[in-house]
Design goal:
About 50% of the residues lie in helices and about 15% in strands. It is of the alpha+beta class and about 450 residues long. The chain folds into three domains: about 70-155, no CATH class; about 205-300, Helix Hairpins, CATH 1.10.287; about 300-460, Histidine kinase-like ATPase, C-terminal domain (Heat Shock Protein 90, 2-Layer Sandwich). A five-stranded mixed β-sheet has the order 8-10-11-13-12. A four-stranded antiparallel β-sheet has the order 4-3-6-5, covered by helices on one side. Strand 3 (about 95-105) and strand 4 (about 110) form a beta hairpin. It comes from Bradyrhizobium nanningense. Its EC number is 2.7.13.3. It is found in: Membrane.
């Protein structure tokens, strides 16, 4: 019992028992084990006590019957006349019942056996008896009646003695069946909590509108679920304010930048005008990226929406080619010739691939080509001939406003963070590796769309 108590105290520290259902099951197993041990013992004790009491009442009734057969004669002599119906029960040949009738001094007056008064009966453990005292014609008489429980005709005592071996064991399978039933009941009871946890796993920066279901939630857990939903309401409000601030700030910055660009044109110093134009372009690019981030944060992706990854990549290559040519660089589209359909939003995909291509053009060497390769497995790879990415920076480059000097440090460090955000929204992966001949390769891998899903999407449109 001490070991069980020690284990019960430590079970809460085990990872397995952090589960509510396993805590309930464990405690129930302990309860079942205790009941399985105590219940047969209690039943045995109650049954034995009841049978013992029945024996005593029966023996007392027999003693009273015998007392009625004691009669005082006129000379004061006591006589005892056992009726014929009882002679067989108290015969030595039968040997199950016996009686002794004694006076107040303990002298034996009448007896069913012929042994001497000092002779002792069998072991007291196998004898059940009772005694009554009567006053007959001024003389006190004590009638003792006993039953030999070891006699072959005593069936009740055999049942009691064999209770554990033949009957008591049945309580164990019954309790095990009860335990299995309870486990099923517990699992059904906590099913709404599992459903709520599945819903909670879908909550993220892009899906702050999801709330935990309150239907069928146990009354004890409902306040917690309600409090979580209220906390999510407050978080969604905070996200909304933050997104709106970013979008408003970006919109408000566009007008001053446009005015500033116009005023720069009036400057006479050509070199200063060109330098200021470059700064204005950098600031305009930052504002545009901030607007992209704000739009991405509010965009909710339809799980059934599909897009042609090759068509999106071709559009990006066509739109960014003038930028590459102006910097004495080139960009080419490679890979699959047929459409590559994936789960995703075409506008978001275009922004991610555009940022990768723009980043590659920025860092690739002059007179080299940036390759955009679309794979039939739903992947798109962008390769450049730049200095590559240091091993320690491969995760840092996707953080917002993080910049490292890959020969230059222009830009705000938002382009690759937009790529990561698009990948996260599409349940896609983004990875970067250095090429053996120099340069870096960024890989976006999306989930291909099934032909059946594509057919349903086309049917809807």
């Amino acid at each position: 019992m001490a070991q069980i108590g020690s284990y019960a105290r430590s079970y809460g520290r085990s990872p397995t028992f952090k589960s509510l259902i396993w805590r309930i099951v464990f405690l129930h197993i302990l309860a079942v084990a205790v009941v399985a041990i105590l219940l047969p013992l209690v039943l045995f004790w109650l049954l034995n006590s009841e049978i013992t009491q029945l024996h005593r009442d029966a023996m007392r009734a027999q003693a009273e019957v015998l007392a009625e057969r004691i009669v005082a004669q006129p000379g004061g002599l006591l006589t005892f006349n056992l009726p014929d119906s009882l002679k067989g029960l108290y015969s030595e040949a039968y040997g199950r019942y016996q009686y002794d009738i004694r006076d107040a001094d303990g002298r034996l007056l009448f007896s069913s056996h012929r042994r001497s008064a000092a002779a002792a009966p069998r072991s007291s453990e196998s004898i059940s008896g009772a005694a009554v005292t009567r006053d007959i014609d001024g003389k006190t008489v004590r009638i003792q009646v006993a039953e030999d429980l070891a006699h072959r005709d005593v069936i009740i005592d055999d049942i009691v003695s064999n209770f554990f071996r033949r009957v008591g064991w049945i309580t164990i399978p019954i309790l095990l069946i009860l335990l299995a039933t309870d486990i099923i009941i517990f699992r059904r009871a906590v099913a709404p909590l599992w459903k709520a946890s599945e819903e909670a796993s879908n909550i993220g920066p892009a899906r702050t509108d999801i709330r935990l279901p309150t239907e069928q939630i146990p009354r004890e857990i409902l306040p917690l679920v309600t409090a979580v939903n209220q906390a999510l309401d407050r978080l969604e409000g905070g996200f909304r304010v933050q997104r709106q601030f970013t979008a408003d700030a970006a919109h408000q910055l566009r007008t001053p930048l446009a005015i500033l660009r116009t005023r720069i044109e009036t400057l006479d110093d050509r070199a200063a005008r060109q330098a200021l134009h470059a700064d204005i372009e950098t600031m305009s690019r930052l504002v545009a990226q901030l607007l992209e981030i704000a739009e991405l944060d509010t965009l909710v992706l339809d799980p059934g929406e599909t897009a042609d990854l090759r068509a999106v990549s071709a559009e990006v290559v066509a739109s960014i080619a003038p930028l590459a040519i102006a910097q004495h660089k080139d960009i080419a589209l490679k890979g699959a010739d047929a459409p590559v359909l994936i789960h995703g939003n075409a506008e978001m995909l275009q922004r991610a691939i555009f940022n990768l291509a723009e980043n590659a053009i920025k860092f690739t060497a002059k007179d080299t080509t940036v390759d955009v390769e679309v794979g039939e497995d739903g992947s798109v790879r962008v390769r450049d001939s730049g200095p590559g990415i240091a091993e320690a920076e491969r995760e840092l480059i996707f953080q917002r406003f993080w910049r490292a000097d890959r020969r230059r440090s222009d830009g705000a460090g938002l382009g690759l963070s937009i790529v990561r955000a698009v990948a996260d929204d599409h349940a896609a992966t983004v990875a970067v590796e250095n090429l053996p001949g120099g340069g870096a390769e960024f890989t976006l891998r999306f989930r291909p769309a099934d032909k059946v899903e594509v057919g349903e999407e086309l049917a809807r449109h």
